[in-house]
Automatic annotation (TrEMBL):
Its EC number is 2.7.1.-. GO terms for molecular function: NAD+ poly-ADP-ribosyltransferase activity; tRNA 2'-phosphotransferase activity. It comes from Acrocarpospora corrugata. SUPFAM superfamilies: ADP-ribosylation. Belongs to the KptA/TPT1 family. Removes the 2'-phosphate from RNA via an intermediate in which the phosphate is ADP-ribosylated by NAD followed by a presumed transesterification to release the RNA and generate ADP-ribose 1''-2''-cyclic phosphate (APPR>P). May function as an ADP-ribosylase. This is Probable RNA 2'-phosphotransferase. GO terms for biological process: tRNA splicing, via endonucleolytic cleavage and ligation.
């Protein structure tokens, strides 16, 4: 029984570390005094020192576990640098090449958001891009984070033919600037 408690504690700690990384590598690097380069990178030593100086010490092992164990692969470490793979509200250039999307992509949301989406389409809101999933299962998980999920189908092939640009992040999330309602298939 003692073993299970340890695992739960470790898992909770990794979730806290992951949320801390998201907050500071995607949204508010200045809050802990770090600066992301133009492509969103920051040195691992700089990040760890800043986290410790701001009351949230992270060991190198915890950082590696949080990056490797994140089910959505939100972060990547290259050499002695780390960055978030997508989801930034601060301006960064992820340096992703344009990619032709599959015929359909998916977006998970909740019912309360559907009327606005029917009028305005999918907007990037505070993020740099609209996030689309490669399959219904992933979109369902995304939508479920905010309640009972509704999965929308996006006619990405037709959007691409109409000149819309798509990118795919390292962890397989599809990114684009806007999805007009005419390219969305709503349930029901």
């Amino acid at each position: 029984m003692g073993m299970d408690v340890t695992l739960v504690t470790d898992e909770r700690r990794l979730v806290k570390v992951s949320k801390y990384l998201s907050k500071h590598l995607r949204h508010q690097p200045e809050r802990i005094g770090i600066t992301l380069d133009a492509n969103g990178w920051v040195g691992v030593p700089e990040l760890l020192a800043a986290a410790g100086a701001h009351g949230f010490p992270i060991s190198e092992g915890e950082l590696a576990d949080a990056v490797a164990g994140n089910d959505k692969q939100r972060f990547v470490i290259e050499g002695d640098r780390i960055r978030a793979n997508q989801g930034h509200t601060v301006e960064v250039d992820l340096g992703l090449p344009e990619v032709e999307p599959p015929a359909f992509l998916f977006h998970g949301t909740v019912a309360a958001s559907v009327p606005g989406i029917q009028v305005d389409g999918l907007l990037k809101m505070r993020r740099q891009h609209v996030h689309l999933s490669p399959d219904r299962e992933t979109a369902t998980k995304v939508g479920a984070r905010r309640g009972r999920p509704v999965v929308l189908s996006v006619d990405a092939g037709a959007m691409h033919e109409a000149g819309q640009i798509f990118f795919r992040s390292v962890n397989g999330v599809w990114l684009t600037d806007h999805v007009p309602p005419s390219f969305i298939r709503f349930p029901g």
